[in-house]
């Protein structure tokens, strides 16, 4: 019988319970080490596992078979780089890194070291999304719309770095954008950004966005993001060439706040275990973490002229 893989988890913030619970439920894994720079987080962590305040010490002493990285976005690059250089497979929370340039560094390192690198786009593992993807397989799609709407303050879980563009990489485009864009890629494959409208708050953080995209065969798509929505709405609408409209509600059937995440993270760790066992794929990861970063940056570039014009007009009014 194959022994469980030894798992290390770095980052005990708001998203870590989903990984930790999945690891506990799945026979493929045995949690052996956790890491967090905050002493209080380590002190409050239950269970007989090794605790570390520095990820390098965890890698050296615990020697895990694989590592989950669930830390703020600005720390993804150094942490993943150290793990990959040590030959340890990595499953990192989206986005892969803070910028596409940083993501490229990790992709190149994973290729050179021949170590699996997976970006955790959890929404593609949603049961409703998977059912929709099955229904569209082999059928011509005319258009796709993804809506990812929430009030961000309700989802912080004490992690204020989400509202710091220097640590998050931006606002709703940088944080929710990768998940939503990945869903379009799941259905359409290769994409290009054709337009982007962004509404920012007084601090300059993007709070509401519409990204327009085009697939390789000319199929159109849109991604609607909102960090100021009263409640939560996350869904996909697909129009087929014959006029039929299909719908997937990512929250349906999951009662309770963020309840849909439990089954999604189980699926992530199930797939990650398979990647670790086989040693592949390496490089860009299972689902294009680098491509998502490139699309995010293309959206910001597309919206930049309008933002510059607005800022110039506001300055002139002073």
Strand content: 25-35%
Give the beta-strand count.
12
With helices defined by DSSP (H or I, 4 residues minimum), what is the helix count? 11
Global structural class: alpha/beta
Helix content: 25-40%
In the sheet with the most strands, the strands line up as 3-2-1-4-5-6
The backbone outline, from C-alpha atoms, is globular
Query: Which residues sit in consecutive blocks of at least 5 with pLDDT less than 50?
Result: 311-317
What's the mean pLDDT score?
93
Describe this structure in words.
With 318 residues, the chain is an alpha/beta fold. The chain is built from eleven helices and twelve strands. The strands form two sheets. A six-stranded parallel sheet has the order 3-2-1-4-5-6, sandwiched between helices. Strands 8-9-10-7-11-12 form a six-stranded mixed sheet. A hairpin with a 4-residue loop joins strand 11 (228-240) and strand 12. The N and C termini lie far apart (72 Å).
